[in-house]
Amino acid sequence: MAGRIEDYALIGDMQTAALVCVDGTVDWLCLPRFDSPAVFAGLLGTEEHGFWRVGPAHREGTEPPRATRRRYRGDSLVLESEWDTGRGTVRVTDFMPPRDGAPQLVRIVEGVSGRVPMSSSLRMRFAYGQVTPWVHKVGDRTVAVAGPDSVWLDTDADTYGKDLTTYSEFTVGPGDRVAFTISWEASHKPQPSLPEPEVALANTLEFWNEWVDQCTYTGPYREAVVRSLITLKALTYAPTGGIVAAPTTSLPEDIGGVRNWDYRFTWLRDAAITLSSLLRTGYREEARAWREWLLRAVAGDPENLQIMYGIAGERELGENELHWLPGYENSSPVRIGNGAAHQLQLDVYGEVTEALHLGHMTGLARNDYASLLQLKLIRYLEKHWNEPDEGIWEVRGPRRHFVHSKVMAWVAVDRTVKLIESGEVDGPLERFRELRDEIHDDVCEKGYDRERNTFTQSYGSKELDASLLLIPQMGFLPPDDKRVIGTIEAIQRELSTEDGFVLRYPTSSSDASGEQNLDGLPGDEGAFLACSFWLADDLAMIGRVEEARRLFEKLLALRNDLGLLAEEWDPKRQRQVGNFPQAFSHVPLIDTALRLTAAGAFRA
């Protein structure tokens, strides 16, 4: 049985990632890429769908013991889990070396004290748990083969097969080290080279130490910021610069419900805000790589801009359901692909333009095609900004005139006006200034409820939307504007949980026709963590700095023991929900930490 979402640790090689449970079980791993079919899919099913457990031996039929403690080694993505048992203490070190050849997952068992009986149980199932491979020996190596995939197991420990699973049982004492490595290779190619686990460990630690040394943030929240930055780096697909929203699919927003989506793609919105956080903390190379990815993905067709692409820029992300997987805690369906890829979301133009603008402002080397792309995006918005769309939250109901979408359209035009004013590019300056004013006037006239002194989710609606918290952060209105303060206070009243966290929007509303789902989906969802960080930002901007700090530190307390956050927090179950770990949660954590540090909002 899969653990709670917060029971998992992330390890990865910046091309794919694995989730390791607190009991030493790898329940999720896609090979060779983030969006490849899973080799271990137990997270969304049962052990029959693939897993790899390494930990102290336990009686058959009993739950494997949870690690007594675990941590990342320093500022790295190398996981150390320790078990204190009746016979002694043992440590397992899990990591994926930054790739130079075949993708590898390495697990090193080390005796700390006493003599501890250990076991390894490896059940590989390809194609998201649907395909049982042929497992056999090739010399001293064990290989599992099915269709296009082969996975090779290397270890000095003795192994044996039973019930379509590869087992190893051994005992470690102080200083003993036993390594296990799995390596993926296309089945038609020669076998991958033999791994060198100890060398790989040293190189992996060196890589992460050197990367973290580039961080320019030195404030009081450095631990949380650095862990979030490492997580964002781990979600970057190194060969192309694309950034996945999360390494998982179908972890539910509503446990037992249908709000289960595949996040292993590059959302322009998520990637753009990730880029902004990396730039603000000193990471220009990632920003440059993402900009190059964007230019390749959009190519010469910005009029058909998608809201998301594959990690190499693929456009077709067709959505399908995996009927043989019961889903995390029976939350079905399990989906791969994402049907929202072709939605119209006008806010994306604003996020992309803002990212390009920030790159320019922070000294990223000029790229003429990036400036040309920005102008083409605005010319598209000239014709389409006043159309209804699906909005930032990808509603599966009818299109509406979402206020946040219009605000971000204004952002796109405003940043382009600034680009032209800087002399970096030629464009119709006066025409774009007039367009900027037209959008601004339209939003303030049609998206603002004067009786309640708040902006609303969409034109003519009464509902609120937490994305409105971005109005002052994007510079659409100043923080001291009464309409901004009124909106912040209305969201606090109407969209906050008892714990003070923020919902994205009301999922349902009662009217004369009865209960209706506003987003076109049944069920409910938890507090959206990004929105809660946005509230902390806004509170700091309007001078309620101490209140902002308290909310921020409550949000930090929701992280698991390794500093990781999913997409949402379920206030009823008091647990994390949604895909994990989620870039859209870690990015605003960084941004809020930077804002509060600048405001001096921390205890000495």
Describe the structure.
- Helix 8 packs antiparallel against helix 9.
- This protein has 14 helices and 29 strands.
- About 1% of the residues have low confidence.
- Helix content is 31%, strand content 22%.
- A hairpin with a 2-residue loop joins strand 14 and strand 15.
- The chain has two domains: 205 residues, Beta-galactosidase, Chain A, domain 5, CATH 2.70.98; 385 residues, Glycosyltransferase (Alpha/alpha barrel), CATH 1.50.10.
- With 604 residues, it is α+β, with helices and mostly antiparallel strands.
- The longest helix has 19 residues.
- Its cofactor is phosphate.
- Pathway: Glycan degradation; trehalose degradation; D-glucose from alpha,alpha-trehalose: step 1/1.
- Keywords: Carbohydrate metabolism, Glycosidase, Hydrolase.
- Its EC number is 3.2.1.28.
Keywords summarizing the entry:
Beta-galactosidase, Chain A, domain 5, 8-stranded antiparallel beta sheet, 29 strands, 604 residues, 22% strand
First CA to last CA: what distance? 44 Å
Annotation field: number of helices: 14
Average pLDDT across residues? 93
CATH architecture descriptor name of the largest domain: Alpha/alpha barrel
Strand content: 15-25%
| Total number of distinct structural domains | 2
Q: What is the overall shape?
A: globular
As a whole number of angstroms, the C-alpha radius of gyration is 25 Å
In brief:
It is an enzyme of class 3 (hydrolase). The protein is of the alpha+beta class and 604 residues long.
List the helices and strands and how they pair.
Elements: E1 8-12, E2 17-21, E3 25-30, E4 38-40, E5 51-56, E6 69-72, E7 79-85, E8 88-95, E9 104-114, E10 116-123, H1 126-129, E11 134-138, E12 141-146, E13 149-155, E14 160-162, E15 165-172, E16 177-186, H2 197-212, H3 222-234, E17 236-237, E18 242-243, E19 266-267, H4 268-280, H5 284-298, E20 308-309, E21 320-321, E22 335-336, H6 347-361, H7 368-384, H8 403-421, H9 429-446, E23 448-449, E24 454-455, H10 470-473, H11 482-494, E25 508-511, E26 514-517, E27 527-528, H12 529-541, H13 545-556, E28 568-570, E29 575-577, H14 583-598
Antiparallel strand pairs: 1-2, 2-3, 3-4, 3-5, 5-10, 6-7, 7-8, 8-9, 9-16, 10-15, 11-12, 12-13, 13-16, 14-15, 17-18, 19-20, 21-22, 23-24, 25-26, 27-28, 28-29
Helix pairs in contact: 3-14, 4-5, 4-6, 4-14, 6-8, 7-8, 8-9, 12-13, 12-14, 13-14
